Amino acid sequence: MKQKLKPETWVGIFLIAGILMIIGVILGFGNIKTSKEQTYPINIIFKDAAGLIKDSQIRLGGVTVGKVTKALNSCLPAMKSCWKPASRAT
After folding, report:
1. Whole-prediction pTM
2. Which of 4, 58, 68, 77 is the most buried (most CB within 10 A)?
């Protein structure tokens, strides 16, 4: 004689299956790039960029949107004037 599964068993099976599917969807969408990994460089010149380190993450609203690829500590020739600290009068 074949035994039927109790309704509580079916509920448990569907609950576990549902949780596993939700976890799978979350993990799957977490690795999808909607922009097909197309990137473009943005060059920004700061007067003071203390603490800027190569390969640091750039975040916008808490979401990582890029990374620092190069950080220069000297004035660039393209700048008309470079920022210099005020000298003390003696």
Report:
1. 0.38
2. 68
The H or E element spanning position 60 is strand 57-60
Phi and psi at residue 85, to the nearest 5°? -65, 150
**Cβ neighbours of residue 83 closer than 8 Å, sequence gap 6 or more:** 47, 48, 75
How far the first Cα of the chain sits from its last, in Å, is 104
85 has pLDDT over 60: no
3-state secondary structure of 16: helix
CB neighbours (10 Å) of residue 71? Answer: 13
Q: How confident is the model at residue 56 (pLDDT cuts 50, 70, 90)?
A: confident
Q: How many residues does the chain have?
A: 90
The two three-digit tokens of residue 61, written as one number: 């609203």
